[in-house]
Queue: 4 jobs
Job 1
Amino acid sequence: MSVELLQYIGLFVVSLSVLLKASDWFINSAEAIGLSFGISPFIIGVTIIAFGTSLPELATSVASVLAGQSEIVIANVVGSNLTNIALVLGVVAIMAKQIDMEYNIWHIDMPYLWGSAFLLWFAVADLNFSLFEAALFLCGIIIFLSYSFGSDKSDDDNEEKEEVNWKTYLTLVVGGVLVWLGAVYTIESITQLSTMAGISPDIIAITAVALGTSLPEVIVSVKCAFAGKTSIAVGNVLGSNIFNTYVVMGIARLFGELTIPENIITLQMPIMIVMTILFGIMSNNKKITKWEGMVLIMFYAFFIAENLKEI
């Protein structure tokens, strides 16, 4: 193994670690600021935390477009969405024994998630993602946020507001800057490693990068589950996938043309659609058991195995 290869592997590990740690700072400070404004915990989970945990996907996608590796964008979105459902919910269901939902996500959240998944599939089926479609996706997230902040899903309206100071806002800014720098160098290392190994960047993005950028969702959701807040864990996955689809695709397209690899449409996208539908079916009775969690993990293992065949 050459010294240059080891250097880029090291750069990938360090930059991705900085990206995840900075995202954690950003999420914690954003959550504290949200609570200080009296926003309910569920709404924080499905919006602020979901957006925060989607920051790595957004940052790496924008950086990939600027670096001329725009095929990473769709791979990152599809891979992360699938990982969030299959791996994150699977792990949470197994570790917490069962995910109980205190609200009916079929009221609007699940249909909206299904709608975002199908809209993404239709939008990129022609291997093109236009500016009009990007604008449409950004309108989609505005509608989702308007609904989320306009509805009250918290049963505890008397919850004390959290106090924040200037350090919280500083952490928010520093975290955001480090997220961007971590993303830039993560994409740089991916580009170099894929060139050296002769592997398509989108394959690395849909597996290694998707797993890495989904670690915040894993950590946040597992913590919520063990704290007895499984509603927030589910809300985090729901919100994160909706943000990934609408915000990551929409904003990344504003920075340049997006390349849509054909293998994403023929293999990975159908698996993501199936997992999204399965998520809805499993949650229909307002719970996801550990046995269903094991089924989700099996789908994730199949997804990884199929992508390894491409290497």
Job 2
Amino acid sequence: MPAPTLDTAVQAMLTALTPYLPAPAGPLPAPTVSVTSLTERLAGLGNVNGTGARGAFPSVVSKGIRVDAVTRFQLWATGPAQADAGVSTLQSSLSNDAGTLWGKGFLKLALEAAPPPEVIPSLPAWRKHADYRVLFEYTYSDTDGADSLIAQIPITIDSVFDEHTTVTDELVRWDNTTAPMLVVRGPITLGALSLLLFVAGAKPGSTVTLTRTFDGAAGPPAVHPTLASFLGAVAGAAPTERNASMTFATFGDFVAASSPDGDPITMGDWNLDNIPDSYDSLRLPLGAGIALTQPTDLFEVAYQLPALDRVAVMYMRATRGG
């Protein structure tokens, strides 16, 4: 997706100021707000303000476009007193909303000039300008051209004997080429599953199974019919079961159990349609937290098939909490 332009920032600034215009009165011309002078300023370091995240994924860069401008409010009235009163009301509204405007990117907003009203005989009507010096910053998130996130790092130890390993943390990537099981080993307390999800069309089918178990468990895990039942047994300070599982009937059901966790991000083009892929950020809370107190304790999330059965990508990270 192309980066926003200066025009985008200017339009966002004017859109934020437009609600402060008075309502049109009778046959008078509609009030307007416009830009009379404009200079682009540097925001942050090279227009980069820092890094951000979507859920548990440090995947975005916070950027900004800073605009130094003079904006002109043009108001209309039936007489000079009414025109002056209109500017006074405007100034009061902008001052009262200073905090709100700051949150929308207005770093500075100050009245610079308000010449006397002038009569326009042909209408007839009185016109008054109010010029404001504005320093506005339009902020947006960017992945800096990243096609994907790093989910694992393969390392060759000895090329002669073909010894190798793979470095991971509590993160896996599922797509239509592979869907490895997420395996988290204690000691750790898990508070949620964070997801970044792109689906090209229909959501993948097949099942997704959550399992809390431990090395050497005798027999298969106890099967729970719902997520609530599963978490009721395995989560919290005093879990009643250490070897239990539950299965979502479809991948869609697994996703539906999650909630939005921030704005989408765009990166890569996995389905090769020449359109950057939009990833939804989601979060699936794990109740009061699943405590894996020993190195032998395990939490697993498994897709039934070796790979997703639709064109899709999902990054899944188990996050600490509880």
Job 3
Amino acid sequence: MADEQLKDTPEQAEFRQRARAWIEDNRPAEPPVRLPQTPLEIMTPEQMDYLQAWQKAAYDAGLVGCDYPEAVGGRGMTDCQRIANEEMMRARTPYFPNVIGLGMAAPTVFYHGQEALKERLLPRLFSGEDIWCQGFSEPGAGSDLASVQTFAERKGDKWVINGHKVWTSLAHFAEWMIILLRTDKSVKHDGLSYFVVPIRSALGNGVTVRPLIKMTGETGFNEVIFEDLEVDDSFRLDELGKGWQVAMTTLAHERGAGELVTPRSGGMVNKSSHSTSASALIKLAHATARNGGTAADDPLLRDRIMQQAIHEAGFAASQRRSRVPALLDHPMRLPLQNKLLMSEISQGTSGLAMDIEGAASSLYLGDANAPDGGQWPMAYMNSFGFTIAAGTSEVQRNILGERVLGMAKSK
């Protein structure tokens, strides 16, 4: 029996058995189109339709949002989302498309939204019927998030929004956006407020979404332009001027820290069809011709592959520590560390795959001669997004050093 099953309560054990049986009986058919490696690169309606149908089916079966109260669309359970995630991971089911909604918007709305707003928005978020995006970064405000300038001007019980958000994943499908706005230009952090805004219904009437083509050729990113978009004050989360504090809730969940203290709703827990593990590197090395043999015959490459395997094993051990209450002396330490390590290990693995492939790493999707269908170059290019998203690796190290280890602030 797996370690996690040994720790299940009777309620959780019954839920695990039910979840496993449902997944086995309801595994979705093969997709009619190629799926991207993560939901952040969904480009076409066909991809989205397939994945939304899967999330809706899982939600109807009680496998999404199950730790949230029933009043907001959940099942009122305790630590059962983790079990659902584990079972879907084990079965290698498709990922959910509403990753930003599940991982960031749901906990933020739950903790900071008015009751009527939670009851209105969260059920359709959990089911995947409403896709969400995140409006944080701007052309002049990325790592320095508190410098955002997209402005909301109050007019009675309404707010009029003008400005420019960028690097907005899934905005081309999103019904709703969580957004950090400036409501007072005279102060920095205290001049920020946090809203949820409907963007799909306002396309062409206050909202413009423009795709940004990445170096992979995919268009998961977008820029979003606001021109006199009017929203009701009921869409504001928490008090006026408390946007920075609300944003920290969002970022804590994006970085993984929120999982220690909040209901879970599910997210990008499922493996993509392309594995980027060290074991996949071993298969690739054996399949890659090199100097009359294979790349696996190269002792230097073998050593580098084993180093990646060691990093993976260490990371898995580190993740297990988050289940030990006595080790959670600082709620951000392990999650921030895990986010940093996970993104850099992934980048190291895909980078090593490029070295194993050699000249063949220049072959891309659609080339019949590309090893593993050209997925490794795609993974390597996408990996840079994960060392930037939710705060760059440099930002993560600063937070760990200053707030966890108590080191002096960098200049």
Job 4
Amino acid sequence: MVKSPLYGVLGTALVATAVLVPTSAAQAVVSPDISVTNTKAHLDQLQSIATSNGGNRYTGRPGYLASANWVKSKLDTAGYTTTLQSFSTSAGTSYNVIAEWPQGDANHVVMTGSHLDSVSSGPGINDNGSGSAGVLETALAYAASGQVPKNRLRFGFWGAEELGLVGSKYYVNNLPAAERAKIELYLNFDMIASPNPGYFVYDDNPAGNGARDDLTSYFTSKSVQTEYIDVQGRSDHAAFRSLGIPTAGTFAGAEGIKTSAQATKWGGTANTAYDACYHRSCDTISNLNLTSLDRQIDAIGHMVWNYAQKDYGPGTPPTGPNLLQNPGFESGAVNWTGTSGVVTNSSSKPAHAGTYKAWLGGKGVTSTQNTGQSVAIPATVTAASLTLWIRIDTNETTTSTVYDTVKVQVVDGATTTTLATYSNLNKNTTYTQKTFNVLAYKGKTITVKFLGAEDSSLQTSFVVDDVALTTS
């Protein structure tokens, strides 16, 4: 966390006790238990990197690049699409690590971030290894969970925060306006394991985004009292907030002094800094409160899981001509190739429009089926979206186990990318529209493919209709 004119008073004068308000629909999803053991292991690794690189992970020095490469490798292995974004600073070249989960509506992005760099005087394990380790473990846990997000999840690990939020500012300022507009919410986590912790929730609520109140309600449900705080320009949410993007986050305190009332409420030591090692060489692996870390990372997981499924409304795909032939299957299997019988006019399952559709599964026997179509996306387009309508019914009664799936895929030469996976857990006997950004494939000929897999127990029917690939 960067210093500011508030240095020495933040955490006392600018806070107010949070008031519990009605929660939003974002809390409908069960919250995960993010592993504090795994998160602590990430912090051990960041300490090891600092120890091997002059005792710090400061921008422009080897310890920072080693940290960025290590985080990127973990996310790569988990299946994220990752980018190491370089930029120049007064201390030398720095890097942002940007990771995106390749599912969910790319027109609605929920972004979570933390700064990865330390100050030059120490390894920065609480500031801000704690936030970065928590965000990293949440991203890894989501990848391993089998969840299918409604919205696109993106994670940012910022460089050069300690130089004045340079990395996060560089990122948002270099996003085209249309891409900025797709970010529905940015969540920031900076210093979440302070050794004498407070439980502060950012008092940022532009346009009534509700995320602040959802964080407050979550902590209240765990019998943890919170206080609102305006950290102003001291962390990376400021770069997003300045552009009107809704933000929220948590903070366990820095150099500010814990009051007697706060010590009564939260425990710890009154009249002492939340983190006496703030921006000092003693901000090491020993400078952590694991109870605070555990509570805060579960709050991160709660927000990511719930806002991944928040209904932000339908996407806005381009309105140009459909590049797919026979997109509603009304000419049967013409222009589509794959498993015989998938394209059908059977009256057992309704079409979205007309009588034909692609029906995958529905047999209750171990099988795989597919159908797909090759399509060329012009190199000159500036937007490209794949949309489809899908209906899912199942005889499976479980609410927790995936037995049958259908995948929406793009085949690009020898590479197959799964844009989304739906299962028996996504039962919905009315058609819903799904939208995917496929601009990355401009200038290529790809195959849009639907791949169904069913086990030998009860049937699940995945019915797809009215597919479109439009560009502008």
